[in-house]
Design goal:
This is 3-oxoacid CoA-transferase subunit A. This protein has 230 residues and is α/β, with parallel strands linked by helices. The protein has one domain: Glutaconate Coenzyme A-transferase (3-Layer(aba) Sandwich). Strand 2, helix 3 and strand 3 form a beta-alpha-beta unit. The termini are far apart.
């Protein structure tokens, strides 16, 4: 099945105001830059965003924040975004901060069809407020529920026309699990090849999870904090 669409504008068809959306990537690595730009241009608003972080002020999800298109942010790290901080303190943005491992597992659980699980992370902290705590083998564990989305936007290094994906490096941190947890998963890739050209032994996301795929362009691939030796 050929799942190729022409560009990001065609890929986001069906995304509407108020939907829950996952954005893959880790920091600024492996983020779906083209999809974010298309959503920004179309002006879709009141989004509930699930992502590892909120980008920076002038790049990534920071662009959607600056344009007030995000209603709620569900993330594990937001320390590089001054506009995020301003909106949070001003009461303009709803925020749910989640321990990073818990966030990853809640997304993975959503893709695996597991509605809830228990973890020791967050017990005795604000994270546990309003959640069930249960004891197992003398230790307290917190119940966390799955995370799923209407749309998942992921970015891969290479993909084929059937939607099979290969990620590179740190981009594998959240993209693969988010690809499984969306009702509709959209993949943008740096290199798009015909079906059958990818070695099955190296595929990270099987095409069965991907609804649409397109070859992205003009990737900036910014580095959040550049550190070099003297």
């Amino acid at each position: 099945m050929n799942k190729v669409v022409q560009d990001a504008e065609e890929a986001i068809i069906g995304l509407q105001d108020g939907m829950t959306v996952m954005f893959g990537g880790f920091g600024l690595c492996g983020i779906p830059e083209n999809a974010i730009s298309a959503i920004l241009k179309k002006g879709i608003k009141d989004l509930i965003c699930i992502s590892n972080n909120a980008g920076v002020d002038d790049f990534g999800l920071g662009l959607l924040l600056k344009n007030h298109q995000i209603k709620k942010m569900i993330a594990s790290y937001v320390g590089e975004n001054a506009e995020f901080e301003r909106q949070l303190l001003a009461g303009e943005l709803q925020v749910e901060l989640i321990p990073q491992g818990t966030l990853a597992e809640r997304i993975r659980a959503g893709g695996a069809g597991i509605p809830a699980f228990f973890t020791p992370a967050g017990v005795g902290t604000e994270v546990a407020e309003g959640k069930e705590v249960r004891e197992f083998d003398g230790k307290l564990y917190l119940m966390e529920k799955w995370l799923r989305a209407d749309f998942s936007f992921v970015k891969a290094w290479k993909g084929d026309t059937e939607g099979n994906l290969i990620y590179k490096g740190t981009a594998r941190n959240f993209n693969p699990m988010m690809a499984t947890a969306g009702k509709i998963t959209i993949a943008e890739v740096e290199e798009l090849v015909p079906a059958g050209e990818l070695d099955p032994n190296f595929i990270h996301t099987p095409g069965v999870y991907v609804k649409r795929i397109f070859q992205g362009k003009n990737y900036e691939k910014r580095i959040e904090q550049r550190t070099v030796r003297k």
